[in-house]
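Box S1 | Example of a co-folding query
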Amino acid sequence: LIELDRAHLIHPVASYRGHEQQGVRVLASARGATVTDASGRQLVDGFAGLWCVNAGYGHDSIVEAAARQMRELPYATAYFGLGSEPAIRLASELAERAPGDLDHVYFTLGGSDAVDSTIRFVRYYWTARGEPRRDQFISIEMGYHGSSTVGAGLTALPAFHAGFGIPFDWQHKIPSPYPYRNPVGEDPQAVIAASLAALRAKVEEIGPERVAAFYAEPIQGSGGVIVPPRGWLKAMGDLCRELGILFIADEVITGFGRTGPLFACSEEGVVPDFITTAKGLTSGYVPMGAVFMADHVYQTIADGAGPSAVGHGYTYSAHPVSAAVGLEVLKLYENGLLENGRKAGARLMAGLEALKDHPLVGEVRGRGMLAAVELVVDKKNKTPLPAEAQAARRIFDRAWENGLVIRAFANGVLGYAPPLCCTDADIDAILERTAVTLDQTLE
Ligand code: PMP
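Box S1 (continued) | Returned holo structure for 4'-deoxy-4'-aminopyridoxal-5'-phosphate
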């Protein structure tokens, strides 16, 4: 398999880089939070695949929901006014739970095309409002907004830009709120004030009449689980409203229980103009994303007919099997999974906090079942691990040998996003294997 993989399978490069020598690790099966590789070795999955298998693996009720839908009606286009019952029901169930007036749901295949769709809808919105010159977009350093051509330009991770001729000149960035490494220090109010000032200044610099929208993740995931202070998201949203620009919360990672509730925006008291989601929506069993659109945006697009009346969509938009899975997963969230995630998240955070005194641990941060340990070589000066020495890759390898799957970001941050179904024993295994891995890294 490894040879065939090398010869024929193209992996997403940014995550594969550094793993070439060893080749791919092939997973064979999984149940709960445990994955089994092709040689029969079991590991605890501390990252829920790619922050997505929130319900855990091997859920028979999800499999049955998919199988039932495949038998009944495996495909129905969402085009030409056609539809399917699961897609309609899922949209309505989700709209009921989304913050504020985010009552309209546009299904995609994943997160990248959810973000991509918002870019198109934002442009369409401003054109419909008679302001087509509002075509400039702002996002945040260290942010991730997918890998479509334009979405990757909002993404601010260099690996996604190099060689692609992006970002485009209409895509602007402001600094990350990153409390641990913020030039203004870690004080929450100072961090919030710095972000507000940066957004104001950027809008001024671009020209206030040219700015279309601002994108933010409630917690920056792929940048290394960067957790802004409480109140930051609300403050940024309020400023967008004051400046008259649209505000998009990218909840592809934070949505569906990762930080506790179904939407991180809800616990922050924020009602953006759009929310993008994917991953936990179907818990990774089948691909699907969803854009939530505020009523005032919907009413403006195509004169109140909404996006159904504009030229944007996919063959697999609102796929019935994905929607059936989404409905089943939503049931699981509300029948104990969110609750279990909150409990397991508290255990995970407490356990990681206990590692704070380890000589390599610079900071422990997180919310719910989304956490990070930032490793440093010098705690006082917060000196990062040397990226060029591929320290992160070695930590990933060591953790793997210890029976733990975690994400090791290039900047020496260890990322945790376990399935919400984790038992106490699963969480304890993650913590114990992390401690062993850190000690080995010190050696
Ligand atoms: N936005 C955010 C915040 C993400 O974390 C991701 C994926 N990690 C995406 C968008 C893109 O989602 P996908 O990989 O499903 O296209």
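The CA atoms of residues 116 and 124 lie 13 Å apart. The chain has two domains: 2-58+336-442, 63-332.
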